[in-house]
Amino acid sequence: MTSWFSPDWAAPENVVAYCTTRHGGFSTQGYHGLNVGMHVGDSAPAVEKNREILPFHERIHWLNQVHGKKVLTLPSDDTTADAAISRSANQFCAVMTADCVPVLLCDSRGTEVAAIHAGWKGLASNIIAETVSKMVSPSSSLCAWVGPAICGDHYEVPDQIAQVFRSFSDVIKPSPNTQKYLVNLPGIAQLQLKEAGVTNVVASDRCTYCEPLTFYSHRYATHQGLQATGRFVSVIGLR
Ligand SMILES: [Zn+2]
Q1: Dist CA 13 CA 5 (whole Å)
Q2: How far is the CA of 173 from the centre of ligand 1 (A)?
Q3: Cα–Cα distance, 145 to 201 (Å, whole number)
């Protein structure tokens, strides 16, 4: 029952990376546990206390994520973006998710890191390639971690959304429900990383919907009749 865990990857020693869970924290009801999302209707003091528990929390640059493709290079006065890059030890990148795909990146020398929030809209606009292109490290020197996200068995979408990803036919299948498809978002993220030249990719293979007690899952909460739920965070930085 840990409040956060580290990616199972071979990152340089000076790279700090972790992903939180629901365990611990001060939030209650539908947000129960370690909710770090300030924008989801939870009590602000509870979220602030939750954020203060996090390692290196004072260095985290929190984003206002809008499902776009804008990438910030830190330090920045801006917060509205869905990805961030840092080459400074004082600036940690972070993305909040609850089914969307969190992707963490670092180069093999430990000089540059990035975090990406990729839901279906971010994947459709290829925010992954956008982020990789804005990093100074060659893509061949990067390693990536694909964090907990909704799996291909639990993410059902209408035909119009499935059409957007028709070139990734291996990670889309028809749903038993008519005119619906099951789309594997973390699978698409892995394919887009490879297309962007990042071959060293580690997938967490953990599903937010399959593990609703460990992670926040927007869709699971909706299926439970809840109006809202929390967010967990994937963080990366240099020390
Ligand atoms: Zn699942």
Answers
A1: 16
A2: 14
A3: 6
Nearest to 137 by CA among 198, 51, 209, 66: 198
Q: Tokens for 175, please give them.
A: 């749903």
Quickly list DSSP for 21-77: -SSSSSB-GGG-B----SSSSS-HHHHHHHHHHSTTGGGEE--B--SS--EEEES-S
CA of 124 to the centre of ligand 1 (A): 21
Phi, psi of 128 (to 5 degrees): -65, -50
Question: 97-117 pLDDT, tens per residue?
Answer: 999 999 999 999 999 999 999
CA of 209 to the centre of ligand 1 (A): 5
Integer Cα distance of 88 and 73 in angstroms: 10
Q: Separation of 210 CA from ligand 1 center, angstroms?
A: 4
Average pLDDT over residues 36-55: 98
At 140-193, the pLDDT tens digits run 999 999 999 999 999 999 999 999 999 999 999 999 999 999 999 999 999 999
Residue 237: is its pLDDT beyond 90?
A: yes
So what's the pLDDT on residue 1?
Answer: 82
Let me know: does 111 contact 168? Beta carbons within 8 Å. Answer: no
CATH of domain 4-151+186-238: 3.60.140.10
